[in-house]
Design a protein that fits this description.
Strand content: 15-25%
Structural class: alpha/beta
Helix content: 40-55%
Largest sheet: 9 strands, mixed
Number of strands: 15
Strand order of the largest sheet: 11-12-10-9-8-7-6-5-13
CATH architecture of the largest domain: Alpha-Beta Barrel
CATH topology of the largest domain: TIM Barrel
Length: about 500
């Protein structure tokens, strides 16, 4: 895409808005790009800031024989910052010209970030009523009414945790980046080859050392661990003895009875056994994920899952009979080969099982996924049946007593839709909220894990400060170039600065 931007506006923000309409597009100001194709969209955008605090935006878009232009004039407003006013004006202009040329209106309007409920949260915190927040999302951000209602509901459900945030608390994430097979849509750092799976014993030794040192630092800093989340990959790829050893490392470092939540991902039904679930329960795990993605066997084959719908039902029964109190299931709307009828059938069956949590994802085209390697035409802004699937999941969840408690979006989702976590009353997934809302620090262990050191106290009104530390991405890098000591030092320095600031 040829893109020319003038004025004081972040070009990346403009590109992100354009990708709502042109997913997977690359950007250039080079006129020679047109030599590769006559179907290259060209956008010119100019922003002018007025002396009175208002802004004017002029936009033009051409694509083959189609052309659209607009002028957006936004006077100064006392209720929002000047930077926010600029973003709204630019968003309005881009949505206008792209919408006219493409003939498409995005459900989330100009909201392009990972957290579409963030704006709703900010407005609620400023004292706006629920009704006014929904109206403002529609009028200022061009969000369609049902998505505005969803964002506001999620923000309200998260508010109880944000308001009670305590800067003396933290969570721990532990990464097991191995899977029995790689899903065709996956780009996570997870490994399936026999050679790499053979590194698991050495990986666990290094991971155990990092777990010990991380918890020791947490105790040194005087923090209370609220949640522990063991994710992947597929942690239940470990055999029963390996899983018991890993969970014993956690139990050695923290009284698991004091944890508000202790999650073990068992995402692949073909890795779940009665023995592993018994170990998890005896070691204090109180939340587990059993993820079918779909109960359509044909679609499971297309996406590279090595299990069937019956395998999921068997695994779910094992998990339920283990007496682990909270079960989460993941499903994906918009998978290749899936249609509304089969999605609805899968979803109805899962809801009938009454898992405490259901997370509904929208299929996202990841750059490193096999789907994108094999097909460059898989991007879809309208998404076919996916909008109907997403709507059905949300209406059905509400009817069955589930509440939307957290939400996020990814780039290049089919139809530009969202991922939503639903929970029965009293069963919200706490780690998901803490991670998404960045309420407190997350100390992360293992390959590909990212620690977030957070300084946030909603009671004192000070701005949130976040620093990240990235562990080596791949298991073999993690084994050869372990950065545990650097992570611990980064955390100490962060908390020392925080203490000095508080005086």
């Amino acid at each position: 895409m040829k893109l020319r931007v003038s004025g004081n506006i972040n070009q990346y923000y403009v590109q992100t808005l354009c990708m709502i309409f042109f997913p997977g597009e690359k950007f250039s100001e080079d006129a020679d790009i047109q030599a590769a194709s006559n179907a290259v969209p060209e956008l010119s955008l100019a922003l002018v800031e007025n002396e009175d605090g208002g802004v004017n935006v002029h936009a033009e878009l051409s694509l083959e024989e189609k052309y659209a232009s607009c002028d957006k004039i936004y006077p100064h407003r006392e209720d929002i910052t000047h930077d926010r006013l600029k973003k709204i004006a630019v968003g309005d202009a881009i949505l206008s010209v792209c919408g006219e040329v493409i003939g498409y209106r995005p459900s989330w309007g100009m909201l392009v970030g990972v957290r579409p409920s963030k704006v709703a949260t900010e407005m609620l915190e400023s004292g706006m009523s629920k009704t006014r927040v929904k109206k403002t999302l529609v009028s200022d951000y061009f969000v369609i009414p049902k998505k505005a209602a969803l964002a506001t509901e999620v923000a309200l459900n998260e508010a109880e945790f944000v308001k009670t945030a305590d800067d003396g608390e933290c969570s721990v994430y532990i990464s097991i980046p191995f899977c029995p097979t790689r899903c065709a849509y996956c780009s996570f750092v997870s490994y399936t080859s026999r050679k790499l799976l053979a590194t698991i014993p050495d990986y666990l030794i290094a991971l155990g050392d990092e777990i010990n040192k991380t918890f020791a630092l947490i105790r040194e800093l005087g923090l209370r661990v609220k949640t522990v989340y063991i994710g992947g990959g597929t942690p239940t790829i470990l055999d029963e003895d390996q899983l018991d050893w890993l969970l014993s490392m956690v139990e050695k470092n923290v009284d698991v009875r004091t944890l508000d939540e202790y999650t073990l991902e068992a995402g692949r039904p073909d890795t779940i056994t009665e023995g592993k679930m018994r170990v998890a329960r005896l070691r204090g795990v109180n939340r587990i994920s059993v993820n079918p993605q779909t109960l359509n066997d044909d679609v499971l084959k297309i996406i590279g899952r090595s299990h069937t719908a019956d395998d999921f039902l068997r695994a779910y029964d094992i998990a339920r009979n283990s007496e682990i109190p909270i079960i989460n299931t993941d499903v994906i709307a918009g998978l290749p080969g899936d249609k509304f009828s089969s999605f609805a059938a899968s979803y109805d069956k899962i809801v009938s099982l009454k898992p405490e949590n259901i997370t509904v994802h929208t299929f996202s085209v990841k750059k490193a996924s096999d789907f994108l390697k094999n097909s460059s035409h898989i991007y879809s802004i309208r998404g076919g049946d996916v909008g109907k699937c997403v709507d059905y999941s949300q209406i059905t969840a509400q009817h069955e007593g589930y509440e939307p408690y957290y939400m996020y979006r990814q780039k290049n989702t089919v139809g530009n839709y969202e991922n939503v976590g639903f929970a029965l009353g009293g069963y919200k997934g706490l780690y998901n909220i803490y991670m998404m809302e960045e309420i407190h620090s997350i100390f992360a262990c293992g390959a590909g894990a990212v620690s977030k050191f957070v300084d946030y106290n909603p009671k004192d009104g000070s701005p949130r400060v976040i620093e990240r530390f990235f562990n080596p991405k791949y298991p073999y890098e993690y084994l050869s170039d372990n950065k545990t000591e650097q992570k611990l030092e980064a955390a100490r320095e962060f908390y020392e600065r925080r203490s000095l600031k508080k005086g």
